[in-house]
Design brief:
With about 300 residues, the chain is of the alpha+beta class. Helices cover about 35% and strands about 20% of the residues. It is globular.
């Protein structure tokens, strides 16, 4: 078995769900994903229930790119090593598709600009049926560091980037992620309309540079969209115990909790509370991945 190509990406959490207002935003987290392209099946079982990786190759070919070494699609196999729990709203599909596309680039000597990777990732996620909007903001966050505010209706991927920034400083914040049982309700576009004003609050917070408030407003809106009262309670418990932001990420059900690094006791208390509810095995600690350069957002 030979490794033909390899690629990496990382997870992210939501600042604003794109289905709420037509604008989406996600921020990069240090939860890694590595994808390898192989010429024979891996010994490790591949978990790809939605056929996302098949869609990646389908979209790659549909856009005029060639497969490596003259091989056919049925001659190619994948190996995925991911720390992102799937179907939790932590952008696992976007991350895997970006890493897989980078594997194909590596295998074929193809040099694609990031906006092109994001475009192919969105097409792949649509084709696999794992995204309502194409998750363009998610793909940007999984392919780059920091955050971007995206207009999903823009004429091009590049033109869709409205704002961007480094994000809250990694060393200043602890990010606690509560991975929960898979959601029982998959939202439809019409489910978002009743919560437009809450999503608009999240959008306004991003435009004002208040990313923590955006996470909270977006999370509250998503708890309504999903009828996820347990997620809302976890977020409220976090605030009572000193968190600065908390809310459901993506289409859930994961809850993201932010606490300043100088007050680690907040995270300790939340872990104790969750342990009492039998959820201690579903806790992930992460950090933001800051992009380079000057930021436009603030804490």
């Amino acid at each position: 078995m030979a490794i033909i190509g390899s690629g990496q990406a990382h997870g992210a959490c939501s600042l604003l769900h794109a289905a709420g207002t037509g604008y989406g935003s996600s921020i990069a987290l240090d939860i890694p994903v590595a994808v390898r392209l192989l010429d024979k099946p891996s010994k490790r079982e591949l978990n790809d229930p939605d056929g996302l990786l098949d869609s990646v190759i389908k979209i790659w070919l549909a856009n005029g790119y060639e497969l490596p070494n003259g091989l056919k699609q049925e001659d190619l196999f994948w190996a995925v090593a991911s720390k992102i729990p799937p179907r939790q709203g932590l952008k696992s599909s976007a991350a895997v598709s970006i890493a897989a596309l980078r594997s194909l680039c590596d295998a074929t000597g193809t040099d694609l600009e990031t906006h092109r990777l994001v475009e192919l990732s969105a097409q792949s996620q649509f084709d696999a049926g794992v995204s309502l909007t194409g998750s363009i903001d998610d793909a940007w966050a999984c392919a780059t560091e920091g955050w971007k505010l995206i207009d999903v209706n823009a004429e091009s991927i590049e033109d869709g980037v409205i704002m961007e920034g480094r994000g809250p400083e990694s060393d200043d914040w602890l990010v606690l992620i509560i991975s929960r049982d898979e959601r029982i309700k998959s939202p439809k576009l019409e489910d978002f309309q009743p919560y437009f004003s809450d999503f608009q609050q999240a959008l306004s917070a991003i435009q004002e540079g208040d990313l923590l408030n955006a996470i909270t407003w977006n999370g509250r809106a998503m708890s309504g969209v999903l009828d996820d009262y347990d997620g809302r309670r976890i977020s409220n418990d976090a605030f009572v115990n000193g968190a600065r932001a908390a809310g459901i990420s993506g289409s859930g059900p994961a809850v993201v909790i932010l606490s300043p690094s100088i007050t680690p006791q907040t995270i300790t208390r939340m872990k104790r509370i969750l342990k009492g509810k039998g959820k201690e095995s579903n806790i992930i600690e992460a950090k933001f991945l800051n992009s380079q350069g000057e930021d436009v957002d603030s804490d």
